């Protein structure tokens, strides 16, 4: 019997690497100040990652416009990554604001 070929490895596509804020340890079931601190740290790391992606995208866009960039795909990918990450951060912010508003309505 032959061994099956992994279709992803056969195409030369590497596995996805975890995002910077996904490498934090999973929070425990009990609420603790350390858990809140780890969430704040994760959120801060995500925002810093977004800033890095946006600055990289801006730098590659300038290089593409001035003609210093050989591969335009790099600028396009960097711009797409920054855009998708920004959309994610906006969605997280909107969910946080909605949760805060729901909590405030419960208290009234």
Itemize the secondary structure elements and their pairings.
Blueprint: H1 7-11, H2 33-66, H3 72-107
Uncertain parts:
none
Reading the helices and strands in chain order gives HHH
**Broad shape:** extended
* Tally of alpha and pi helices: 3
The proportion of residues forming helix, as a percent range, comes to: 55-70%
N- to C-terminal distance: 68 Å
Structural class: mainly alpha
- What oligomeric state is this? single chain
Radius of gyration: 20 Å
**Sheet having the most strands:** none
Overall pLDDT, averaged?
80
Work out the strand percent: under 5%
Total strands: 0
Describe the protein's architecture and organization.
This protein starts with 6 loop residues before the first helix and ends with a helix. The mean pLDDT is about 80. The chain is mainly alpha-helical. Helices cover about 70% and strands about 0% of the residues.
Q: Summarize this, please?
A:
With about 110 residues, the protein is mainly alpha-helical.
Characteristics:
single chain; 108 residues; mainly alpha; extended
């Amino acid at each position: 019997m032959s061994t099956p070929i992994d279709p992803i490895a056969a195409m030369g596509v590497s596995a996805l690497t975890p995002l910077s804020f996904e490498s934090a340890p999973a929070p425990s079931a009990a609420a603790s100040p350390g858990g809140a601190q780890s969430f704040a740290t994760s959120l801060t790391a995500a925002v810093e990652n977004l800033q890095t992606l946006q600055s990289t995208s801006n730098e590659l866009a300038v290089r593409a416009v001035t003609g210093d960039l050989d591969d335009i795909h790099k600028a396009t990918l960097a711009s797409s990554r920054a855009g998708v990450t920004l959309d994610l951060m906006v969605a997280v912010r909107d969910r946080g604001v909605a949760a805060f508003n729901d909590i405030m309505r419960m208290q009234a």
